[in-house]
């Protein structure tokens, strides 16, 4: 019997150790990102992209580990960023956006815009053909864009991107005129977004619903096969010689093939590059970036995600947050800098405005313009008559000062942890934060308006993204303006921003909006997320496009 | 006998149908809109959302969706994925061999380790081997597979470099996943066999055998083990359920193909027809295996046959 109790003790001790260990273990879940139109994907190549290699080596196969499985490789129907990272190598667009937000030729060589801004006429390259031999021409462009508007296509996020496109007129085989419903300065740039890539009409007709599993475009790589939950393989398109200005190698790529391995579990993904089973891995968490950065065998490539940075949106329909001073108290009471440093270990930048630095018209003067100041925050609340009660939480007319913080579940990008830190920070200035996690943000936040503060981000490439967030929305409609800002001056700036063709004036308009958002404490910007790739040192020439998707044209593998 | 088998088959059918309806209703009641994962609410207009909901049929009331789904199911149509319109059944069938390979390999691991340690620990009760066996049993049951899997990966793939971290091609990719999953089954089996061995050993017929002068080895392996294994056979049916559930985690951790991966992805994307399809498919397998186990039970143990 004594022996028995001894073994029980041993087992107990072991279990305790294991429990502690497992608590420390990684929480790698299935984080899903969304594309261009969705959350988290676009980026500016301004970050640490690689310098082109002096001498590229011909041949070689790149293995690239993805964090999740693409839904479809049909640019118009897919809605996941991970799919764009794969299909961008198979497809080309009419135009390309460079680092400085300039729109460059790609499949279109030149274009003109009508005076009223309602039609764009493109001259197309004449030496391009699709990977299935179909010639690329005005017909293919018309087919692609009309396909997006056709409801039977079930196009998802490409639909809002192509707005306000109405119709196409084929002028001749290599000239096409696109007609818009209303003028839009964002339109041309949007044509560079991967969901608006040109597809082969023959292949779409041939494969129908299955085009997403048999993609055919004009891009530098040809689709080979897709083994579900295992890998997607693409190979060199040897006919390719129409690369855009955003890459150095305009000809066929150096690589023979790329194999995208689908490895959802974080630890396994990182382990696969450490054990040399793949040459590059995406979506590397901050703690691994920090450790791999110091390892000479690897290089860490990062690119900012462009659009609306992750920000806390304050609902101005809910008292007391309808009052400027109350919102300013949040602005001063929340120490964003500390949050970003603590959770992302320097791998993400703090956000300062309603748009990310890579977006046209970004107002740099907003950086460091508001610094945490708890005393000031407390004073602002005092002025509103909210005085600390016995438990430290402020009260007014017998009502406690609470903040209903809604965040989405599962915990993406440690956003739920942000809520927890803010809960502690605001407690210090006497605000009780009630955090609610929901899987159904659409109903809770967008339909029922049941929140005081809600965190959100959006991927985009044009400052016009501010329009749906801050332009007066029609009463009762499902809208992005969940903060309920309604100011004729802001409306006017945003309306003019859509059509203003003078770049300096357009930038000024958007700077006004950004200033307004800060001065009125409409939102609290938190972080600009980054897409990160860790690659073996032998992989050279890997770059990212403006949306943050990898460009494989210049990649070569050195022994 | 035949009547009993037919009766069992009928109840099995009811279980499959019942579980599918239940799952359908639960999925329907869960918060969240599948359209959410297709269209970003911060980007799409309400008209777009409404029209997509209509196209997908998710705007219909529960009973209409339910009738529609089961009507098609009777014709062998598992429906199409909401995400990419792909038919569900071919997808499941194409991925199932990988899950089957994993389950089979894990079952071998579970049975070999489980039976061996179970018997040894009962024979050498309270000796070191018994302690080890019980620790293995406890760990197998209580260690979460995602954790033990990653631990094995760290040691055998990353540090030692002996085995691949991921994939489902070749026997090498099967080793770590099947050990991870097999250990869970082994944990159950060790405890079960140990207990039933100890029970059998105390029965009168063992005393009779001893008094007849049979060797201890012969008593244990020829008489006691055979009787102790009977309840373990029932365990195999339950283990299949364990394997199917474990596959969801294991296939994700080791980036293997399989129906576990399909359902994990589908749950994240709220792709209800796919979730429903995999659950229905798994239910059929689980129920069929248990049916076979139940029937075979009466062949293994004559007492059961006489009773029915």
From TrEMBL, chain A:
<keyword id="KW-0813">Transport</keyword>
<dbReference type="Pfam" id="PF00496">
    <property type="entry name" value="SBP_bac_5"/>
</dbReference>
<dbReference type="InterPro" id="IPR030678">
    <property type="entry name" value="Peptide/Ni-bd"/>
</dbReference>
<dbReference type="GO" id="GO:0015833">
    <property type="term" value="P:peptide transport"/>
</dbReference>
<keyword id="KW-0732">Signal</keyword>
<feature type="region of interest" description="Disordered">
    <location>
        <begin position="30"/>
        <end position="53"/>
    </location>
</feature>
<dbReference type="GO" id="GO:0042597">
    <property type="term" value="C:periplasmic space"/>
</dbReference>
<dbReference type="InterPro" id="IPR000914">
    <property type="entry name" value="SBP_5_dom"/>
</dbReference>
<feature type="signal peptide">
    <location>
        <begin position="1"/>
        <end position="25"/>
    </location>
</feature>
<comment type="similarity">
    <text>Belongs to the bacterial solute-binding protein 5 family.</text>
</comment>
<feature type="compositionally biased region" description="Low complexity">
    <location>
        <begin position="41"/>
        <end position="53"/>
    </location>
</feature>
<protein>
    <submittedName>
        <fullName>ABC transporter substrate-binding protein</fullName>
    </submittedName>
</protein>
<dbReference type="InterPro" id="IPR039424">
    <property type="entry name" value="SBP_5"/>
</dbReference>
<feature type="domain" description="Solute-binding protein family 5">
    <location>
        <begin position="102"/>
        <end position="473"/>
    </location>
</feature>
<dbReference type="GO" id="GO:1904680">
    <property type="term" value="F:peptide transmembrane transporter activity"/>
</dbReference>
<dbReference type="GO" id="GO:0043190">
    <property type="term" value="C:ATP-binding cassette (ABC) transporter complex"/>
</dbReference>
TrEMBL record, chain B:
<dbReference type="InterPro" id="IPR035906">
    <property type="entry name" value="MetI-like_sf"/>
</dbReference>
<dbReference type="GO" id="GO:0005886">
    <property type="term" value="C:plasma membrane"/>
</dbReference>
<feature type="transmembrane region" description="Helical">
    <location>
        <begin position="278"/>
        <end position="300"/>
    </location>
</feature>
<dbReference type="InterPro" id="IPR000515">
    <property type="entry name" value="MetI-like"/>
</dbReference>
<feature type="transmembrane region" description="Helical">
    <location>
        <begin position="228"/>
        <end position="250"/>
    </location>
</feature>
<keyword id="KW-0813">Transport</keyword>
<keyword id="KW-0812">Transmembrane</keyword>
<feature type="transmembrane region" description="Helical">
    <location>
        <begin position="12"/>
        <end position="30"/>
    </location>
</feature>
<protein>
    <submittedName>
        <fullName>ABC transporter permease</fullName>
    </submittedName>
</protein>
<dbReference type="InterPro" id="IPR045621">
    <property type="entry name" value="BPD_transp_1_N"/>
</dbReference>
<feature type="transmembrane region" description="Helical">
    <location>
        <begin position="100"/>
        <end position="123"/>
    </location>
</feature>
<feature type="domain" description="ABC transmembrane type-1">
    <location>
        <begin position="96"/>
        <end position="297"/>
    </location>
</feature>
<comment type="similarity">
    <text>Belongs to the binding-protein-dependent transport system permease family.</text>
</comment>
<feature type="transmembrane region" description="Helical">
    <location>
        <begin position="135"/>
        <end position="162"/>
    </location>
</feature>
<keyword id="KW-1003">Cell membrane</keyword>
<feature type="transmembrane region" description="Helical">
    <location>
        <begin position="174"/>
        <end position="193"/>
    </location>
</feature>
<dbReference type="Pfam" id="PF00528">
    <property type="entry name" value="BPD_transp_1"/>
</dbReference>
<keyword id="KW-0472">Membrane</keyword>
<keyword id="KW-1133">Transmembrane helix</keyword>
<dbReference type="GO" id="GO:0071916">
    <property type="term" value="F:dipeptide transmembrane transporter activity"/>
</dbReference>
<dbReference type="Pfam" id="PF19300">
    <property type="entry name" value="BPD_transp_1_N"/>
</dbReference>
